[in-house]
């Protein structure tokens, strides 16, 4: 059995792993894990990842979770082009810096935006107060400003003149609020231009393919009561 | 100017950087007193516009985020391989831990310092419900730490609110033993030094020895308190 990737393209980190593997021609078996049907909570999947999260990687006997760890593992094992995670120490440190920062910053705020704007009201049938939504959108705004001011600045890509893992992780995160109907690139010409560059570097077709699911998030049919009950506790913990 | 590290030993990520660098990496310590609000000063904002510690500065090169700093230091300076092994799978495990830590430990275990010390200092109240929720979250995280991660040579030593009245490792002999091993390896003296500030903070708070943070720092601090789930 070769490389297996357990993914749901609804998830931001899964999209980054998917795009990276496809773009670099890394051969893998896709093992879909449908989150909205609670497949990540199955006993079968717990054998792969007892933390019940995606993405997960299995390479023979070796199982790995956490998208950044997976991306770095793939980078090293398959000897991808240097720009993704440069050999140069300082250039690489800047990628590490973004990958560390994003967990509690962009990742978190994009996730909350999707859930507060779309997934709770539409999928879970749980209304979200206008105040809560406004607060979440305000936090997203602050984070987007930080992304522009601290990371992107006047560079072509987040950490320098070339695309890196940082850009891939960032763009897949930003598509979460886009999927929720937020025009994050409107009124932000710098970010919009960066997005175009990242899409071009990744390849428009691959980018579109990876984002088909999230762009339809608004149209998910409501969850049935059993599924809703099953998913709710972990969702609440996830978006703290 | 050589390597400069901007740290406040009250901060979790700063402990790890400090302990690691003291391993024989020459650096200038630049203390940044968070309680005194030095992180929002103009001078420090020039170093890091995000107004956070730790920060590494090496000439023109500025680096934030403790994980990035630790990795950079371990690659740039001659340090023992076990800190960041070159073996593909072992290194992947370290990144896996760092990823999980960022999501589950960092925010969660920093909360007691806010609820028990900093919020009261500012006269801000945190509802008991949130304190209880945080305790439950820490408990769950410790369980995961024990079940999934223990045994790995993750180099971020998560020494946390032991001083803040939570007997963190009580009833968790595996974790207590692991902590003992880590401390023995690093050296008791160095750990004492690094953890001095956090270990004595409750006492200082009780004796009213802590200064009230200056107004300039209030906005960011109150926002952090509001974000406690």
TrEMBL record, chain A:
SUPFAM superfamilies, per the entry: GST C-terminal domain-like, Thioredoxin-like
Protein name (record): glutathione transferase
EC class of the enzyme, as a word: transferase
GO terms (BP aspect): glutathione metabolic process
GO molecular-function terms, A-Z: glutathione transferase activity
Domain GST N-terminal: 1-82
Keyword Transcription regulation carried by entry: no
Subcellular location: Cytoplasm
Coiled coil: none
Family: Belongs to the GST superfamily. Theta family.
Cross-referenced InterPro entries: Glutathione-S-Trfase_C-like, Glutathione-S-Trfase_C_sf, Glutathione_S-Trfase, Glutathione_S-Trfase_N, GST_C, GST_C_Theta, GST_N_Theta, GST_Theta
Pfam families, alphabetized: GST_C (PF00043), GST_N (PF02798)
Superkingdom, natural source: Eukaryota
Keywords, sorted A to Z: Cytoplasm, Transferase
Keyword Electron transport assigned: no
GO cellular component, one term: cytoplasm
Source species: Carlito syrichta
Organismal lineage: Eukaryota, Metazoa, Chordata, Craniata, Vertebrata
Catalytic activity: RX + glutathione = an S-substituted glutathione + a halide anion + H(+)
Subunit structure: Homodimer.
Domain GST C-terminal intervals: 88-220
EC id: 2.5.1.18
TrEMBL record, chain B:
Enzyme class label: transferase
Annotated GO MF terms: glutathione transferase activity
Key words, A-Z: Cytoplasm, Transferase
Predominant location: cytoplasm
GO biological process, one term: glutathione metabolic process
Catalysed transformations (reactions): RX + glutathione = an S-substituted glutathione + a halide anion + H(+)
Domain GST N-terminal: 1-81
Oligomeric form and interacting partners: Homodimer.
Function (record text): Conjugation of reduced glutathione to a wide number of exogenous and endogenous hydrophobic electrophiles. Has a sulfatase activity.
Name of the protein described by the UniProt record: glutathione transferase
Naturally occurring in which organism (per UniProt): Carlito syrichta
């Amino acid at each position: 059995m070769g490389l297996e990737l357990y993914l749901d393209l609804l998830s931001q980190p899964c999209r980054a792993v998917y795009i990276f593997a496809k773009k670099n021609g890394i051969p893998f078996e896709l093992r879909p894990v449908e989150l909205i049907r609670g497949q990540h909570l199955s006993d079968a999947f717990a054998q792969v990842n007892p933390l019940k999260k995606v993405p997960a990687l299995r390479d023979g006997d070796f199982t790995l979770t956490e998208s950044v760890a997976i991306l770095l593992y793939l980078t090293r094992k398959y000897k991808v082009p240097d720009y993704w995670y440069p050999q140069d120490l300082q250039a690489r440190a800047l990628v590490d810096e973004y990958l560390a920062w994003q967990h509690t910053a962009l990742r978190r705020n994009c996730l909350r935006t999707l859930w507060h704007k779309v997934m709770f009201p539409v999928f879970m049938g749980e209304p979200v107060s206008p105040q809560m939504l406004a607060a979440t959108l305000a936090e997203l705004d602050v984070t987007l400003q930080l992304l522009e001011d601290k990371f992107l600045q006047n560079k072509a890509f987040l950490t320098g003149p070339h695309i890196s893992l940082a850009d891939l992780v960032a763009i897949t995160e930003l598509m979460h609020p886009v999927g929720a109907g937020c025009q994050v690139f409107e009124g932000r010409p710098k970010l919009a231009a960066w997005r175009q560059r990242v899409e071009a570097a990744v390849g428009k077709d691959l980018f579109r393919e990876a984002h088909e699911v999230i762009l339809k998030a608004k149209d998910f049919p409501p969850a049935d009561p059993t599924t809703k009950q099953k998913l709710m506790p972990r969702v609440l913990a996830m978006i703290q | 100017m050589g390597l400069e590290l901007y740290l406040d030993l009250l901060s979790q990520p700063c402990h790890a950087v400090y302990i690691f660098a003291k391993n024989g990496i020459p650096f200038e310590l630049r203390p940044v007193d968070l309680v005194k609000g030095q992180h929002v000063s103009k001078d420090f904002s020039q170093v890091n516009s995000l107004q956070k510690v730790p920060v590494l500065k090496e000439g023109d090169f500025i680096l934030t985020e403790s994980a990035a700093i630790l990795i950079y230091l371990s690659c740039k300076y001659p340090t023992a391989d076990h800190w960041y092994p070159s073996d593909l799978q072992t290194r992947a495990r370290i990144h896996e831990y760092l990823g999980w830590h960022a999501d589950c430990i960092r925010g969660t275990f920093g909360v007691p310092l806010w609820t028990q010390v900093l919020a009261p200092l500012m006269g801000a109240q945190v509802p008991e419900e949130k304190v209880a929720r945080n305790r439950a979250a820490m408990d769950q995280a410790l369980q995961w730490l024990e079940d999934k991660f223990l045994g790995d040579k993750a180099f971020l030593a998560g020494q946390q609110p032991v001083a803040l009245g939570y007997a963190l490792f009580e009833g968790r002999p595996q974790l207590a033993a692991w902590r003992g091993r880590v401390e023995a390896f690093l050296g008791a003296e160095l750990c004492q030094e690094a953890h001095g500030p956090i270990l004595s903070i409750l006492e200082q708070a009780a004796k009213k020895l802590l200064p009230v943070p200056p107004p300039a720092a209030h906005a960011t601090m109150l926002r952090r308190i509001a974000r406690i789930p």
